[in-house]
Amino acid sequence: MARPLISLLLPTRKRPALARRFLQSVLATARYPEQVEIVLYADDDDPGSHSLACDGLDVVRIIGPRQSMGAYNSVCLAQARGDVIMLVNDDVVMRTPGWDEALLQLDEAVPDRIYLAYGDDQFKGRKLCTFPILSRRTCEVLLQPFHPAYRGAFIDYHLMDIFKRLEHSGAQRIFYLPAIIVEHLHYRTGKAAIDETYSARGRFDDDMLFAGLATVRAASLTLLANAIAGGATAAESLPAFRPMRKPPSPFHAAWLFARIFLLDRELPKAWRGFLWWWFTARYLASLVVGRKSTAPSATFGTKSRELSQR
């Protein structure tokens, strides 16, 4: 096969039928399937996914231990060969014929190859880059585009936040592609039944991780801005991630999120307000869920639970 130009990163767990459905949708809709590769990560305790393949597609299989979602995608990225990188899930179906050609055209239209793109997932739509698309150069500049701290969520918000910082600084590099439909057949849309993979995820496990990675996102802005300006980025590094503990009360949570989000002038005001409101509301919701559950709550600074799906 020809060298792939597009790499789709696909962590999957105990959903071989869904993963095959996704692979078939890629083959059915790609204009040049020989230029697309799928880099698939399956856990070593999931033998039903170890032989996933699709005639007509280049499927690179990685079998390894259970890890965080950020780590899964980072491992897949290290094996990817494409110029355009896209994160996908096994509960996704590609709907738009020629989506691959459209992505390559976008990549060529941005001379310095610094961008974040995303299609319409038929769930979050324009509001969120649920399945982010980045150039290889953007991934290299960011150093850790899919931070391994994220257990199962917020990689999309993390990238959106970085590029909103960049947009606020004067460089508009977010491209929403509504004509490319990447349908997310998630149980919350009523398009799938909840299964073991969905139910294993702690809904609020990554909230404090996202808050604690604000300094990493600020440093990522500097990396992107330097790359756009033509400056050197090879010697740059990201700050160490320091886990944050869950605030002890709603008052402390509202103040903490105000300090992290509302007072961050690198962010657009509307995005600041949204993050403050949303994380404060999620904190309150976590208290309600915690009262209803007899399971011990997750704490930070301990070994994180390993999850496999956003």
Protein architecture, described:
Helices cover 38% and strands 15% of the residues. The chain is an alpha/beta fold and 310 residues long. It folds into 2 domains: 6-199, Spore Coat Polysaccharide Biosynthesis Protein SpsA, Chain A, CATH 3.90.550; 207-292, no CATH class. It has an 8-stranded mixed β-sheet with strand order 3-2-1-4-7-6-8-5, sandwiched between helices. Helix 1 (16-29) links the parallel strand 1 and strand 2. Helix 9 (250-262) runs antiparallel to helix 10 (269-292). The two termini are 31 Å apart.
Keywords:
globular; alpha/beta; Spore Coat Polysaccharide Biosynthesis Protein SpsA, Chain A; single chain; about 300 residues; 10 helices; 2 domains
SSE layout and pairing:
Elements: E1 6-12, H1 16-29, E2 36-43, E3 58-64, H2 69-79, E4 84-87, E5 92-94, H3 99-109, E6 116-120, E7 133-135, H4 136-142, H5 155-168, E8 174-184, H6 196-199, H7 207-212, H8 214-228, H9 250-262, H10 269-292
Parallel strand pairs: 1-2, 1-4, 2-3, 6-8
Antiparallel strand pairs: 4-7, 5-8, 6-7
Helix pairs in contact: 5-8, 9-10
The span between the termini is 31 Å
As a percent range, the share of helical residues equals: 25-40%
Instruction: Compute the CA-based radius of gyration.
Output: 19 Å
Task: Write down the overall mean pLDDT.
Answer: 90
Question: Gist?
Answer:
With 310 residues, the protein is of the alpha/beta class. The protein is 38% helix and 15% strand. It folds into 2 domains: 6-199, Spore Coat Polysaccharide Biosynthesis Protein SpsA, Chain A (Alpha-Beta Complex); 207-292, no CATH class.
